[in-house]
Amino acid sequence: MKIHLTSEQKRALELMHDTTRDSRVCDRIKAVLLASEGWTAQMIAQALRIHESTVSRHL
Fold first, then answer.
1. Which of 12, 21, 28, 56 is least surrounded by CB atoms within 10 angstroms?
2. Backbone phi, psi, residue 20, to 5°
3. Based on the number of CB atoms within 10 Å of its own CB, is 2 exposed (0-12), middle (13-18) or buried (19 or more)?
4. For 23-52, what is each residue's pLDDT tens digit?
5. Helices (H), the chain
């Protein structure tokens, strides 16, 4: 699934990633950012070491 983010949305997500302590929230943010860069759900799942269906739910 391709996600389109504006540069402002991307910066906001990156700031949220840097300030949150909850690793699950960080994984969700990383999944969205990677999807916006063209990564597939399978690639994201492998990189984050989570199940592909979890990635799909995040997106």
1. 21
2. -85, 150
3. exposed
4. 999 999 999 999 999 999 999 999 999 999
5. 7-19, 23-36, 41-48, 52-58
